[in-house]
Design a protein that fits this description.
The protein contains 13 helices and 23 strands. The protein is an alpha+beta fold. The strands form six sheets. Strands 3, 7, 8, 9, 10, 11, 12, 13 and 16 form a nine-stranded mixed sheet that branches. The chain starts with 20 loop residues before the first helix and ends with a helix. Bound molecules: 5'-O-(N-(L-cysteinyl)-sulfamoyl)adenosine. The site of 5'-O-(N-(L-cysteinyl)-sulfamoyl)adenosine has 21 residues, from strand 8, strand 13, strand 16 and helix 9.
């Protein structure tokens, strides 16, 4: 992509409305634009990151055996009347009336909708276990939308729903998602720690939040220091026993958010207890037959008896993750994207656009990078060198490659690693090897 043909409305100054670094950097890097309070448009750079995150989340859900569907954003109120949540949900739910005076709502989550799909089609235990997920926009009319897309009103969520014949089965489904989440967050380049959590309006008896540590997080978290030293599971699949032992290992250390932490009962030695702030990027719930009972979702069991299915739901804040990753990975010059989610792999800077030799060397290198499969943002504009460097640092691509008149003469390109700041002068071939080899 040539910068002159891209749409990258960066800002030189810090926007006044942004209170936290991720919001400030997303606005400055031209990733998003506010439409109204808590509602944003995603501009090309932001959209690329959002899609990269979405794809990693999708791949790990598919790998875990969940099946992708797509449910609508607008739902009929009647489904929510069946579960009793139409009244319970309060003002956070955006209620809409259509032209026939039918009550509708913009979905804040999809337990009811997916239970309705399930009960219409699944009648036998032989079709279980089943896990259906979608990646869809949600709406919650938050009292105080803030921090940009971190606490939005409209936001993109991955929500998966598991259906099992009994508690044992649904515990395996829960553990399976727990482990899939550890893998997902590791691939996104972040360390997210699971905490025992309150179940809130979703309900249920068992729940974990996954929290990314960042000073600007909304909740305070307390955890045993050894939790951060655990290795992320890497195998493609695990047996139910293996899943249980991974979950036991990760939940064996003390970890709690402020609403669950009790200094009096916490038995971790003071020197081992770490207190930080964190951002909730995922939340999983086991709620058994709460919805299947209210909505009549049952199957014939092996003994022929009708049995209410045991369920869980599993959310990841896909749009919130964009901000969460920035909070966890930035410096004073801008964003530092983990390679897996970066909007481009390499930023190529032409230090003297218009100079025949420079232009030719850049074009040649640009072509070679693309042929080798790299996603490249090529700054061939006539801006000043300082501005070009500042812009590349701000948008945080993992690698920068700079070609100027001196380098052209010497046959070298300067390659900078955004995260470490390390720079090296390499021949074009060696640079290519390093960037795409
Ligand atoms: N039905 C369950 C799981 S599918 C559910 O809705 N869980 S949730 O309420 O915890 O939301 C799941 C994830 O969505 C959260 O962990 C968080 O990362 C994200 N999320 C929730 N509210 C917002 C919001 N207002 N803005 C951005 N992301 C949000």
């Amino acid at each position: 992509m040539r910068l002159s043909q891209f749409f990258l409305p960066t800002l030189k100054e810090d926007p006044k409305e942004a209170q936290i670094v991720s919001h400030r950097l997303m606005l400055r890097a031209g990733m998003i634009q506010q439409s109204s309070a808590g509602i944003y448009s995603w501009l090309p750079l932001g959209h690329r990151v959002l899609k990269n995150i979405e794809n990693i989340v999708r791949e790990e859900q598919n790998r875990a055996g969940a099946l992708e569907i797509l449910m609508p954003t607008l739902q009929p109120a009647d489904l929510w009347r069946e579960s009793g949540r139409y009244d319970d949900y309060g003002k956070e739910m955006l209620r809409i009336t259509d032209r026939h005076d039918r009550d509708m709502l913009y979905g804040p989550t999809n337990e009811e909708q997916v239970t309705d799909i399930f009960r219409s089609h699944v009648k036998s235990y032989k079709n279980l276990p089943l896990n259906l997920y979608h990646i869809q926009w949600k709406f919650r009319d938050e009292v105080r939308p803030r921090f940009g897309i971190m606490r939005g009103r409209e936001f993109l969520m991955k929500d998966a729903y598991s259906f099992d014949l009994d508690y044992e089965g649904s515990k395996i489904a829960y553990n399976n998602m727990f482990v899939a989440y550890l893998k997902t967050f590791a691939r996104l380049g972040i360390k997210a720690i699971p905490l025992r959590a309150d179940t809130g309006p979703i309900g249920g008896d068992l729940s974990h939040e996954f929290i990314v540590l960042a000073d600007t997080g909304e909740s305070e978290v307390f955890y045993h220091k050894d939790l951060l030293t655990l290795d992320t599971p890497t195998e493609a699949a695990y047996s139910p026993d293996q899943l249980q032992s991974i979950v036991d290992e990760w939940t064996g250390y003390y970890a709690a958010a402020d609403d669950m932490h009790d200094a009096a009962t916490c038995d971790v030695a003071a020197g081992d207890l770490i207190t930080r702030r964190g951002i909730e990027v995922g939340h999983i719930f086991h709620f058994g037959d709460k919805y299947s009972k209210a909505m009549g979702a049952s199957v014939a069991g092996p003994d022929g008896k009708e049995t209410l299915v045991s369920m869980g739901s599993y959310g990841i804040g896909v749009s919130r993750l964009v901000g969460g990753i920035i909070e966890a990975s930035h410096d004073e010059n801008g964003i530092v994207w983990p390679a897996s989610v970066a909007p481009f792999d390499v930023g190529l800077i032409n230090l003297k656009s218009g100079d025949d030799a420079c232009d030719a060397a850049c074009e040649d290198f640009y072509g070679k990078l693309i042929s080798a499969g790299a996603d490249v943002l090529y700054d061939e504009t006539s801006g000043r060198a300082g501005e070009k460097f500042a812009k590349m640092d701000l948008i945080g691509l993992p690698w920068q490659a700079t070609i100027g008149p001196r380098g052209v003469k010497a046959g070298v390109v300067e390659v900078k690693n955004r995260a470490s700041g390390d720079k090296q002068e390499l021949s074009l071939d060696d640079a290519l090897q390093l960037l795409v080899g």
